[in-house]
Design brief:
The protein has about 80 residues and is α+β, with helices and mostly antiparallel strands. It contains two helices and five strands. A five-stranded mixed β-sheet has the order 4-3-2-1-5. A hairpin with a 4-residue loop joins strand 3 and strand 4. It starts with a strand and ends with a helix.
Length: about 80
């Protein structure tokens, strides 16, 4: 079982809103996640995010691999 941490798109077309989810790599982008860690919203002038860092660290310790985008969001 290969577990990844990635973004799942939500909301209307043209709005950049995402959930940060833990899911199996083979599942669809918007499929059922194992766990939802938070959300991320990108606007023209700013970024809003709310991510549970404790649970993120837990999943990293269990071997989950974050996507490049999620890793850059966490580090910013």
């Amino acid at each position: 079982m290969s577990v990844v941490i990635r973004l799942s798109k939500i909301g209307k077309r043209g709005e950049a809103r995402y959930r940060v989810v833990v899911t199996e790599k083979r599942y669809r982008r918007d499929g059922k996640p194992i766990e939802t860690l938070g959300w991320y919203e990108k606007r023209e002038k700013e970024q809003k995010k709310n991510i549970n860092k404790d649970r993120y660290g837990y999943w990293i310790s269990k071997g989950a691999i974050p996507s490049d985008t999620v890793a850059s969001i966490i580090n910013s």
